[in-house]
Design brief:
- About 40% of the residues are buried.
- The chain contains 7 helices and 15 strands.
- Strands 6-5-4-3-2-1-14 form a 7-stranded mixed beta sheet, covered by helices on one side. A 6-stranded mixed beta sheet has the order 7-8-9-10-11-12, with helices on one face.
- Strand 9 and strand 10 form a beta hairpin.
- Helices cover about 20% and strands about 20% of the residues.
- By secondary structure, it is of the alpha/beta class.
- Helix 5 packs parallel to helix 6 and helix 6 (about 255-265) packs parallel to helix 7.
């Protein structure tokens, strides 16, 4: 088998030269994380939010409907199939059950109430995207997983059946019955679940081309000049899901933040933008509402249309923007 072009024999590489953090940033970051930062977390618990299991049991055809379940977990119903992205149900995204970032609100849809899922799209193996217990629960129901190179070995070691796993390199695709194509695309990020396994598995984004609709799930990425190429090769898109939270100037190469998410949307051809990777965990020093507030301001300047559902709210996607303003009810 030919080695991937973005693999140097030891580790996977980003599509452009990337430093995870600027030189000398590590200890500054540690000091900042140990300091108190106002409004990093909500003053009181959010929610509870609830997705309608009854609504989700009815799967519309030739329709695009999206339910944001928090962070990067989305239930995407497109043209008669359901895809679940980076599913996280448990309370902490950490190697430890008693330490690490804790959810601001419970997942709005109990795992036992999920409707039938056609495939899980798993972008990379970080804890806030790959939740071991959730993945095991899903694969025990024989739900297939489409993921990036190297991640499958981790899943098999956990007990997932190998025949349920499809691994993709960037620009590779897999077909699904009914006229669906899932393509892995590059992103500017990294992988690993501990300090000794960084870059050992691939990370990326996904395009799901359905009979009627075309979607881009951007997962985690710093901004770079590759979004226009993705649009040229695989667009146009009806909707893009892009990360807006967990940013900081010291690691801007691997998390783009709200303003760069707007620019990436322009590069992608101005699809509707649904922001992800915010409002669920405290993974940086910024106030928890800041990402969406900055996004709204920048999108207005650049005439980018946003879809901002409340957690658990199912939104049928057409060409119109939508803003639930759910976060304004909380401090």
């Amino acid at each position: 088998m030919q080695a991937p072009q973005n693999f140097n024999g030891k580790v996977f590489l980003n599509p452009v030269s990337t430093e995870m953090m600027k030189p000398g940033s590590f200890f500054r970051v540690m000091r900042k994380f140990l300091q108190k930062h106002p409004e990093r977390e909500p003053a009181s618990p959010l929610g509870p939010f609830s997705a309608s299991a009854e609504v989700l049991q009815q799967l519309p055809s030739q329709t695009l409907r999206v339910t944001w379940l928090g962070h990067s977990t989305l239930l995407i119903e497109v043209d008669g199939k359901r895809f679940l992205t980076d599913p996280v149900w448990y309370n902490r995204v950490s190697p430890f059950r008693f330490l690490g970032p804790r959810r601001f609100f419970q997942n709005p849809l109990p795992l036992s109430h999920l409707p039938a899922i056609d495939a899980v799209l798993l972008s990379h193996d970080h804890y806030d995207h790959l939740d071991k217990q959730t993945l095991l629960a899903l694969t025990r129901k024989n739900i297939p997983v489409i993921t990036m190179l190297g991640v499958g070995r981790r899943l098999v070691n956990w007990g997932v059946q190998k025949n349920l796993i499809t691994e993709l390199d960037w620009w590779q695709e897999t077909k699904i019955d009914g006229g669906f194509t899932v393509t892995a695309t590059p992103s500017r990020h990294f992988s690993g679940r501990w300090l000794n396994d960084r870059f050992k598995t691939l990370w990326g984004a996904f395009v799901v081309k359905a009979p009627v609709h075309n979607i881009f799930f951007g997962a985690d990425s710093g901004y770079y000049n590759g979004f226009a190429e993705i649009a040229e090769r695989l667009g146009p898109f009806d909707i893009a899901m892009l990360e807006i939270g967990a940013y900081n100037e010291m690691w801007e190469a691997i998390h783009m933040g709200p303003e760069k998410a707007v620019q990436a949307t322009l590069d992608l051809g101005r699809p509707l933008l649904l922001p992800i990777h915010w409002g669920t965990f405290s993974l940086a020093m910024h106030p928890w509402k800041e990402p969406v507030e900055r996004l709204i301001a920048e999108a207005a300047k650049k005439d980018v249309k946003l879809i901002l559902p409340a957690p658990g709210e199912s939104v049928t996607v057409n060409k119109e923007p939508y803003n639930s303003q759910w976060w304004t009810q909380y401090r």
